[in-house]
Structure formats: structure tokens, C-alpha cells
Amino acid sequence: MQPARQCETGIPSGGPRTLSSSGQELPQTIRMDVRMIAATDRDLKAAIAVGKFRSDLFYRLNVFPIHVPPLRERRSDIPLLVEHFLRAHGSKAGTQLRSVDEKTLEMLQTYSWPGSMLDAYCSPD
User: Fold this and answer.
1) 85 in Cβ contact with 91 (< 8 Å)
2) Quick one: three-class SS letters along 48-65?
3) Where residue 52 falls among pLDDT bands split at 50, 70, 90?
4) Cβ proximity of 79 and 105 under 8 Å
5) What are the pLDDT digits (tens) for 53-106?
6) What separation in angstroms does the CA of 96 have from each of 81, 87, 93, 106, 125?
């Protein structure tokens, strides 16, 4: 990344910080403690090496990494995910979806799931 395109992350290190508002008659200070969760399927260390991702941001985000294997490596999770998505989409549609038939569940479990969890979430739509 070109130096002119880089900017300060604005992510403080350490414990709780304060945020001060401006543009009000009486400035207000708000105490805050923020945790951020970020996910990607990219090799960020390789992206840093070629200048496509900022190393300072990577090290701020990579404090407590959690590796979740792809769904294709966790096929036993599929029935639980189907149950969750049926409840979630049923609530959104204002109905109660109870289950899928065995043939549909078998099809989902034998699918290669080449993408991400977002693909799984969007599939029922």
C-alpha cells in the first residue's frame, strides 16, 4: 500500500477509553470498551507481504484469533445449522418451519460447500 493511502487506524490499544463529543453546548465524555470481531477467507499475512493489507491493522485485529474450519470439513454441523436457519427464516416469514425431509438433508450434507458460511446462510433464500 502506498504511504499516501495509509492512515491512522484510530483503534486504541489497551483497556477502556473515552470518546468526547463536540458540537454540543456541553461536551459529553462517554466511557467505552469495544471488542471487534472480523472474519476473512484470505491469507492476510500474504496480503501484508505484497502491500495489500496494513500490518498495523492486522496486529490490532489479530489479538485473539479463532480458526473455524470450513463447513465442508464439519458436515456433522449441517443438521444443527438447518434447524437454526429454519427457525430464523420462519420467524422472519411469520411462520413456524419445523424440518426438512431426509432427502433434502442428505443433499445438503453431500454438497461440497466450496464457499463460506455466508453461502450456507443465503442458500435457503
Assistant:
1) no
2) HHCCCCCHHHHHHHCCCC
3) very high
4) yes
5) 999 999 988 888 888 888 889 899 999 988 888 888 777 767 777 778 899 999
6) 16, 7, 8, 22, 16
